[in-house]
Amino acid sequence: MDGGLMARKVTSLQVAERAGVSQSAVSRVFTRGASASPATVAKVKKAAAELGYRPNAMARAMITGKSRMIGLVVAYLENQFYPEAVERLSNALQERGYHVLMFMASPTAGDDVQSVMEEILDHQVEGIVLASVSMSSSLSTRCAEHGIPVVLFNREQDDPRMSAVTTNNYGGGFAIGTHFAELGHSRIGYIAGFEGASTQRDREQGFRDGLASAGLDLSAREVGNFIYADARAAALEMCAGTDRPEAIFVCNDHMAFAVMDALRFKLGLRVPEDISVAGFDDVPIAAWPAYDLTSYRQPINRMVAQTVEALMQRIEDPTRPAHRAKLEGALIQRGSTAPAKG
Amino acid sequence: MDGGLMARKVTSLQVAERAGVSQSAVSRVFTRGASASPATVAKVKKAAAELGYRPNAMARAMITGKSRMIGLVVAYLENQFYPEAVERLSNALQERGYHVLMFMASPTAGDDVQSVMEEILDHQVEGIVLASVSMSSSLSTRCAEHGIPVVLFNREQDDPRMSAVTTNNYGGGFAIGTHFAELGHSRIGYIAGFEGASTQRDREQGFRDGLASAGLDLSAREVGNFIYADARAAALEMCAGTDRPEAIFVCNDHMAFAVMDALRFKLGLRVPEDISVAGFDDVPIAAWPAYDLTSYRQPINRMVAQTVEALMQRIEDPTRPAHRAKLEGALIQRGSTAPAKG
DNA sequence: CTGAAAGCGCTAACAA
DNA sequence: TTGTTAGCGCTTTCAG
């Protein structure tokens, strides 16, 4: 029984007429927490099923002021970390009855984020997640005024009103630094991400401090901008000469793959025999035997859970202070790093 | 000047009062194609800027019946082909003034798609894109009744009312088949995707027919379900024994990487010297030197363009017939396939 | 428990 | 060109 009455748009009024009740009775039957007698519920549900009625989420949102939509701005989808995050975030939100309005942003163009955010706000989202994207402080002010909670995912900002969920990037960089020191390497290279990103800055500072704690220093540094091709060029620049490093920390896995590819297939070097490489994120590909990449794992499940939690709390109570979570990750040692040759 | 008047929700009425005009005058200024005198426009824009007013997209949508939202259901985000498609689709839609309401679906659970689609419809989207997901015919009937255009992306269905954009999967499989034949291989293996997927069926049939056209036949077949771990197991099952194939066609690149990893690092085989491997999709990773995978390229830009086109046409004119595009791809020969040893 | 009535913020006739 | 008016489909008082 599909009752295909070919009604273009079935409204609660039509259901009411068919069920012989008032329109508001229909509304009550479909509103959680409203009361109706079993008899009415039965009549209404029957009529609704016959007509194929479903409440119009937009009309409901207008009244209640709750759209049940969360805006998600994302960039760098070619880095496997983000599709994974988007998938889990979307699922977690769906479980809570929220839906995701998604926007792509180019990470380096701040202007872009501005306009995209305005459009999101126009759609009356109840909250916004910015993944791998920063925002101007004037924009964060506007969101605060609108009372719309914003959570930065895998990025930080100085503005303390801004909620942010990150891994301890400094700690992760530090761990890689001491790992290299323990392996006995002394000529060390670093390939940076996009310089404007807090993750890049924190990981580099942690790495430098980790090296320093063992009396070591960086001897080479290039910039890869979180882009495969840039990272490849950076690796060649760093390692094509005679005084190449013994170990390189690459600011994320996505670039580390480019570096390993360049070292192995362009320069004919072996990893880890000739040179050690470590990344950051621990995306699934890092575990594939072709790379078997040592990396610092971001606790993506906990990051997503914290993000959702931060959102829900501030939606319920907008006066709550910003939620700033800095989670611990874990060094995953694999075959791309090895002790210095005796 | 940010005019932070801390108004939680600025409405057109407030703008009207401040500008000394009627509420509908404000509406006209913000409605494309409505007329207002330069003087009114100036007054209204000024007041709006001071108040930080932006039209409520939902209220507008209720009146006009156009939400400017497209629902996107997607699965298999770990296969790089889909994040790439999502990114381009989202961008193309944004350019046309549409926004994307995104949902994750588990590809094997048809039930799941059903409920997710209902939720999407509740939000009054103007169209739906199903990427790597099929739907029951009863569901497609419902969408037809609602007058909501649905486009299948990278998947086909028998129902002719359903728009679908695909690559010529049969042709792609055929091309791989003849490629193997030309290389002189005779013991041939195939690793299938999820058996319920039209892409899997079409690629396999094309491949078999391609082989047949050269007098060849399949000598081994396993199922990888589009999942890395399953594909790995399939490869081991197929190649661990003594009578392994000389060449394997894997139904998509994502699984082909698993197969190459298993052959090289578990079985100690060389690709292509000991065994040739080809995939399908030509995702960016296929071009990375670690894999250098021969593949059949899907014309993703044209697929996205066709999808958007199909959507826009049927939104404008719902009576238009379904749009079924089957695009030609291209065989990309790389280093993972080589001639049979003399 | 139920129906009538009042809007949510906006656009689209319709007069003026 | 403008203001007035009538809703879009729904939830939510408020009487009954």
Task: Give a written overview of the molecule.
- The structure is a homodimer of 342-residue chains.
- Helices cover 43% and strands 17% of the residues of chain A.
- In chain A, strand 1 (69-74), helix 5 and strand 2 form a beta-alpha-beta unit.
- Chain A is α/β, with parallel strands linked by helices.
- In chain A, helix 1 packs across helix 2, helix 1 crosses helix 3 and helix 10 crosses helix 11.
- In chain A, strands 2-1-3-4-5-11 form a 6-stranded parallel beta sheet, with helices on both faces. A 6-stranded mixed beta sheet of chain A has the order 7-6-8-9-10-12, with helices on both faces.
- Chain A is elongated.
- Chains A and B meet through helix 4, helix 5, strand 2, helix 6 and helix 7 of A and helix 4, helix 5, strand 2, helix 6 and helix 7 of B.
- The structure holds a DNA duplex (16 and 16 nucleotides).
Offer a quick outline of the entry.
The structure is a homodimer of 342-residue chains. With 342 residues, chain A is of the alpha/beta class.
How are the SSEs ordered, and which strands pair?
Two copies of one chain form a homodimer.
Chain A: H1 12-19, H2 23-30, H3 38-51, H4 57-64, E1 69-74, H5 81-95, E2 99-104, H6 110-122, E3 127-131, H7 137-146, E4 150-153, E5 163-167, H8 169-182, E6 188-192, H9 198-212, E7 218-223, H10 228-239, E8 247-250, H11 253-266, E9 276-281, E10 294-297, H12 300-316, E11 324-327, E12 330-332
Parallel strand pairs in A: 1-2, 1-3, 3-4, 4-5, 5-11, 6-7, 6-8, 8-9, 9-10
Antiparallel strand pairs in A: 10-12
Helix pairs in contact in A: 1-2, 1-3, 5-12, 8-9, 10-11
Chain A binds a DNA duplex (16 and 16 nucleotides) through residues 9, 11-13, 21-28, 30-31, 34-37, 40, 55-56, 58-65.
